[in-house]
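User: Continuing from earlier, I have the next pair ready.

Assistant: Great, send them over.

User: Here they are, in order.

Assistant: Folding the first of the pair now:
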Amino acid sequence: PCLISGRDEDVQDWIPNTCLCQTASESAAKVPMCSICRPPVFLPGTSCMYETFGCTGLAPGESCGISCKSPYGSSQSVTAECPSGNSNPFKMPVFSQILTCTCPEPDPAQGYTKTSSGSWVCASGYTGTATVSCPCGEEPTLSGCTKLQSCAVPTA
């Protein structure tokens, strides 16, 4: 038998914050039920960019590491921690800071120019907004620029 003593704000309508239960070893005592955090989940199409270290089965108060996989940039890594006293089995670890992994450099393509600041723009004679994308498992690509078309003079 469990006694609910409160709820987390983010899940207050559907899961208890703390459930005090009798255990077999201490049948008369009631102890808080803590729950491990679930492993981090990344945005669809980006999971290939991240590598986790020790994030599975993370108990409350424990931490793990997350970094960018090669070739997705940054040698930076961050720490993620399962909150102390966590009783929400759906809670993910909390990141110490935001980790930004980036696309590898695409091969140059016709219609695109790289600026001195390192960003891609449409070349002269092309229009649009240059975009670099790197779907998981695929080579990075440039898109968004189209060749300007000459207009014909209308005839009467």
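And the other member of the pair:
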Amino acid sequence: VLLEADPVFQLAEHFFCLFFAFEWTTRFLSFQKKWFGLKDGWFVFDTILVLMMVLETWVLSLIMLIAGGSSSGGLGNASILRMARLARLSRMARMARLLRAMPELMILIKGIATATRSVFFTLCLLCLLLYIFAIAFTQLTVD
């Protein structure tokens, strides 16, 4: 439960909830006629996700604080909401649509993935050299 988590995790959860709510509000205000939002399937999907996130992060936390602050405050098991959070992962389906629309982006991603191997080995070599020189300078300064 969010109320029992470390303050860092609580802050991160509230930040993400605020960010997604701001994103949804910005998208909602961008429609000339607000009911056009009902015709956009992705917007309706995002509306459901943001609504679930706000309910879980702010409303459920407030209810639990009022009910006594413990995880067993008469609310039963709230794990269904946790499972519903997995629906947020389906937002990644947008990336597939974006990659199909812009193949240049896929070329860039493949190039970055290819360069990752050589950058990793360069980093390993630099760490090895740093380790060797650290030992050498430590031995020189001991005497």
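Worth noting for the second one:
The CA atoms of residues 65 and 123 lie 49 Å apart. The chain has a mean pLDDT of 83.
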